[in-house]
Structure to design on (79 residues):
């Protein structure tokens, strides 16, 4: 994955732009904000590999993440 850290969440990137974060109670959101950072992720970057460890959780603010799967007959499906 290619990602660059642009700043702390407190720099003006409103985490409520993400529907999951927006649904959190204020105190829960604030706990996450203290540990979170805003990243710019390149288009088509791989953030997780099948079977690999999950070391970070992503909450896109201005993007959409998708999952790509290759089927047995070499057909690729993106959801």
């Amino acid at each position: 994955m290619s990602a660059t850290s642009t700043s702390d969440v407190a720099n003006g990137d409103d985490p409520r732009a993400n529907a999951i974060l927006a649904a959190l109670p204020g105190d829960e959101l604030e706990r996450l904000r203290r540990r979170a950072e805003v990243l710019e992720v390149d288009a088509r970057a791989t953030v997780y590999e099948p079977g690999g460890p999950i070391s970070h959780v992503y909450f896109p603010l201005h993007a959409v993440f998708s999952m790509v799967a290759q089927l047995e007959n070499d057909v690729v499906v993106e959801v």
Remarks:
- The radius of gyration is 15 Å.
- The beta strands are 3-8, 37-41, 68-70, 76-78.
- Residues 1-10 have pLDDT under 50 and may be disordered.
